[in-house]
């Protein structure tokens, strides 16, 4: 069987190999797999089962479908495991895997500045900062960028606790605002 890269050939290959058990996020869509390959959509969560002899391929298990198959290393990025930090689950503002509607319910009655952080259902590996303002709850996607977290890509934080607890105008991860 000849294996071809399911995504754009311009995707860079990861610089290190992932061990079995590593959770990854797919960076592209591959909905028409060849026999033995894994079907996935951009943002899906997969777990590495084993690295193939060809170092640019892995056998992985898809979290949602439970299916196993091959996929190209260039189609993956490692899922950053901030939620694995035991301190995070102790934070009263972290609510884990709840929906946007559940977040709105948790933030009732409305009170300006009341907030919570939840895991993103639409973008596995990312988080959502939900903030009560006026009569609304505003949902801000928290992105992983180069090992740091950001909402606006101008200011980066080392982790969720730093993002939530840093007073406005104070130093953030890497020395100053926008540095990372």
From TrEMBL:
SUPFAM superfamilies: SH2 domain, SH3-domain. Residues 19-81 form the SH3 domain. The keyword Cytoplasm applies. Residues 93-165 form the SH2 domain. Signal peptide: none annotated. One of its GO terms (biological process) is enzyme-linked receptor protein signaling pathway. Gene3D superfamilies: SH2 domain, SH3 Domains. It is found in: Cytoplasm. It comes from the Eukaryota. CDD domains: SH3_CHK. It holds the Pfam family SH2. GO terms for molecular function: receptor tyrosine kinase binding; signaling adaptor activity. Keywords: Cytoplasm, SH2 domain, SH3 domain. GO terms for cellular component: cytoplasm. InterPro entries: SH2, SH2_dom_sf, SH3-like_dom_sf, SH3_domain, Tyrosine-phos_adapter. PANTHER family: CRK-LIKE PROTEIN, SH2-SH3 ADAPTOR PROTEIN-RELATED. This is Megakaryocyte-associated tyrosine kinase. The lineage of its organism: Eukaryota, Metazoa, Chordata, Craniata, Vertebrata.
